[in-house]
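Hey all, sorry for the wall of text incoming. These are the two entities for the joint prediction.
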Amino acid sequence: MTAEALGRSSGERRGRRLTIGAALVALFAASAVLAPWVAPYDPTAVPAALSDTMLRPPGPAHPFGTDALARDLFSRVLHGGRVSLALGLGVEVVAATLGVAVGLLAGYHGGWRDSLLMRATDVVMAFPSLILAIGLIAVFERPGLDKVALVLVALGWTTIARVVRGEILSLKERDYVQAARALGVGHGTILIRHLLPNAVGPIIVAATIGVGSNMIAEAGLSFLGLGAQAPTISWGSMLAEGQTFLTSAPWVAFFPGAALLLAVLGMNVLGDALRDFLDPRWRD
Amino acid sequence: MLADLLEPAAKRVLALLPVLLGVSLLVFALTAVGLGDPARAMLGQRADPELVQQIRRDYALDRPVHVRYATWMSRLVRGDLGTSYHQQRPVAEIIAERLPATARLALAATVVAVVGGLAAGVAAALRPGRLLDQVLMSAAVLGISTPVFWLGMMLSLLFAVWLGWLPVSGYGDGDWANLVLPALTLGAIHTGTIARMARSNLLEVIRQEYIQTARAKGLAEWLVISKHALRNALIPVVTVIGIGIADLLVGAPLTETVFAWPGLGRMLVAAVGQRDLPVVMGAVLVFAVIYVLANLLVDLAYLLIDPRIRRDR
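and here's what came out:
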């Protein structure tokens, strides 16, 4: 294969990856947003004649089957996506904003502020993330999704802070920044108008992958009983229920996990593809 | 050569001290915030008031916060992690009992990931862009995106429940058959990461001139790959193995819960449920120290493999 042909085919593959990632994310987002209108049943309603309809395998009436309380799993998976999306996205917006602020401050000012902020990121990053999340949640009186969100924000800002700091460090010595400074442009304006736009690519990439990590972390914590509590529907707590019936009714565990896998896969593939487009250093 | 190694190695060890200090401060802060009155929690509500006073003095609970930290720290360096509320015995003892099972699982998962990841990465890099490459790399992304606990359940469903080849869960007195599914589960993410890294490094190295030279002098392709390319391509992979230790430790509570594996991770989760905070904080601290030390080892291994960075940094 000639170099040119190789280049063309890897370009095609990049485009295909972007399409697959964007399609999965769009499917996930649409089903989560439209769940109240699309879901065929009330996801929390427990029918009176429980024993007739509980733990039914997938069929025409219930495409994903029913759980131990005879609730429609398809409707529950759709509604579970709302929690996953809201938490994954919401946490990432706050954490990324925090990370950008820390990265800008550290990279631009340097000196003691840089040392202090970077040592703080070192310490947070010295913990395997989910372990520290479990430790933080243990401090609260009772678990819940609000605590999960708080904890994931507290842990989620470090990667973006490092990325932004690195970009700013290399950008701030450029001539155009020096020129702006010589013209008397204020620090705030230089940071927001001249430095931040150049770091947007890596921020978007890190944040996209961050959304997926948040979703996995929320599901993991809820699976362990440390996140969403009933009646809140989370894929993680559905999986915990599913484990109880793994031998007799495997569909209860299969569908929420498959949904989580596809959603996270979409985020990761999209993040990878965006990296190829936005960050030329990663192009192979 | 040894002197060359010693200085950068010492530098890396010294650089850890502020991080470890920060880790201890954070865990102390969590303990201080979360405990309420540790003396009461330790002894129960109807404890002898004199005994409560005794504990308060021993742990300096009636003193300013920096004195409490110093007391806590001096106990910590002597290996005293406090007493479990739930089991009424030293936390260090409980952790020491659970650590071997987690270590065994983590090591097995690392072997799975390194062997599987390198094999897949090299196989993919030999014919880039072909079908095998695409299948392997898609599998790698899939592995990275799969929630470990769900993967564990599905593997257990397939190999234990339906095929009946392996036990569903449990430690089985250290039987190898019990280790297979947890190790595959825990190693999956890590396998994907290593495979991707190995592939892209190998592709980069293959393009370089000395590889062209080796080919030009008529060396067999497998010799070119194994003797010339792989050694250099592996250097960054060592770092990924280090990063992957985080994946392993993060996956431990989940994988151990799915497979009823009597390790540190499952103990941590149970302790949160019992609100046994000394055990929780002890486990968090131990996990963090293992992680920091593992990364140090990776850094040192890096020094050993790659002579170039000994002088640079």
